[in-house]
Amino acid sequence: MDLQSMLVMFGPIILMFVVFYLLMVVPEKKRQKKYKQMLDDLKVNDRVLTRGGIIGKIIKLNAEDVIIESETTRFKITRDGISSKIEK
Questions:
Q1: Is the distance from CB of 48 to CB of 82 less than 8 angstroms?
Q2: Radius of gyration over alpha carbons of the chain, in Å?
Q3: Model confidence, pTM
Q4: Could you give the CA distance from residue 61 to residue 59 in angstroms, rounded to a whole number?
Q5: Looking at the structure, do residues 50 and 37 belong to the same domain, yes or no?
Q6: How far is Cα 67 from Cα 73, in angstroms, rounded to an integer?
Q7: CA-to-CA distance for 33 and 76, rounded, in angstroms?
Q8: What is the mean pLDDT of the chain?
Q9: Same domain, residue pair 5 and 35
């Protein structure tokens, strides 16, 4: 087999892997980086939405957990339990 016939045979497979990487892996890495930045930027009195669908205000921040107040209830969750920050 010469080089040209090998490129014709393996070219489409290599192209599929490149397209898969560009369409799946790169956007996911960007999303994870943006989510981590949002978690790092949290501060007291920010309104957040938890992964369980609870909306509350941050009362206290620690390195690993957050205490959130929602109406009359306070609860402690890990930072990863926060889905998003609610902008005013």
A1: yes
A2: 22
A3: 0.78
A4: 7
A5: no
A6: 10
A7: 24
A8: 93
A9: yes
Contact indicator for 58, 48 with CB cutoff of 8 Å: yes
Confidence bin at 88 (pLDDT 50/70/90):
confident
Per-residue pLDDT at 31: 96
Q: Average of pLDDT values for 78-86?
A: 95
How does 8-37 read in b/e, with b if 16+ C-beta sit within 10 Å? eeeeeeeeeeeeeeeeeeeeeeeeeeeeee
Domain limits at 52?
Answer: 44-88
Q: Under 8 Å CB-to-CB from 64, ≥6 apart: which residues?
A: 78, 79
Same domain flag for 11 and 31: yes
Edge-to-edge strands of the sheet including 65-70?
A: 73-78, 65-70, 55-61, 47-50, 82-86
Residues 55, 33: Cα–Cα separation, whole Å: 23
Residue 68 burial (10 A CB sphere; 0-12, 13-18, 19+): buried
The pLDDT assigned to 55 comes to: 95
